[in-house]
Amino acid sequence: MGDRDLQNNLMESLRQEFGADDRVIKWLEKVLDCDYSSARRKYICETKLSIANLEGIARKAPHLLNQGLQDLLPRNAMLVHYSSFRDRREINLYLRSIIKRFEQAYRQKAELKYVARDLPLFYFLSNRHLADFKFSLWAHQLPGRGMIHIGDETFALCLEVFRLYKAIDSIEVWNQHVLLNQFNMIRWYCSYQKIDVNFTNSLYRAMHLQLEEYKKWAKKGVKEGGGNLDLLFTDFMTMNNGGMLETGRSKVLMSAVSNVNFITFNGGLPCENFTNDFELHCSYATSVSRSNVLARDRIFNQILQDLKGHGA
Prior knowledge:
- By secondary structure, the chain is α+β, with helices and mostly antiparallel strands.
- It has two domains: 3-69; 80-309, Endonuclease, Chain A (2-Layer Sandwich).
- The protein has helices at residues 3-18, 21-31, 36-43, 51-60, 65-69, 88-107, 121-124, 128-138, 152-167, 180-191, 197-220, 269-284, 293-309; strands at residues 80-83, 111-116, 169-175, 229-234, 242-246, 251-257, 261-266, 286-287.
- Strands 1-7-6-5-2-3-4-8 form an eight-stranded mixed sheet, with helices on both faces.
- A hairpin with a 3-residue loop joins strand 6 and strand 7 (261-266).
- Helix 2 crosses helix 3 (36-43), helix 6 runs parallel beside helix 9 (152-167) and helix 11 (197-220) packs antiparallel against helix 13 (293-309).
- The radius of gyration is 21 Å and the shape is globular.
- The relative contact order is 0.13.
- The model has no long low-confidence stretch (mean pLDDT 84).
């Protein structure tokens, strides 16, 4: 693999990231600290990227290097993007990264394949109480300082992620017992007086309302924002929570590792393995979108009944 092959692949990654050529050139102009003409020559591979140029691109957008290096690396070697957070600033950075990725996915008409062993991330972004609880849990604040109450800026970012999610087509495989882990966590933190009964009840009410929305979307096969939804349920799950955005040109896998750690892969073997496992689960699961009315009613009614039993 020659230098120009690497540079061509990197520029193709930037085209996929930003779309229009002019946007890519202006991005390079800023990142490489050069004039527009110099950035354009590097973009069309008329001049070579220097080591310093590559370092600048790596610092600003490390996930793009996978595309450039994919022909050089072995199939089981890859670059990953690792996300975790402990405070509001890091939460906001994480949410902005999702927004950027979802905006690109929407432009490219990507499809989201999502596995919900536990309640999916997007579910918690639809309601302020749910977001407070989830981010407090993820940031490891509940055992010590207690509940994080997110500010208006953070909640606005949550709602923007949720809006984009509703606009993107998705195939989602949910564990039928998707609430069990939530019940156990909430009960445990309530017993240690990290959250009170009133807040617990507000969580259950919010869960109930959002489940009713998902049931409506499943019936129509379309989410409120216009994205198609194929929702499937299974009574066993061997995969972790996570999702893969896929277009004809690229695959981006976002997978949870431990409680609050998220790893993003651009293509490669992890995406292939996720696809194989996802298709296996789909073959076993029951689709309740636009079909299987009895199964849809039975599963949602059972989940809602479980919530009612916990005070919702």
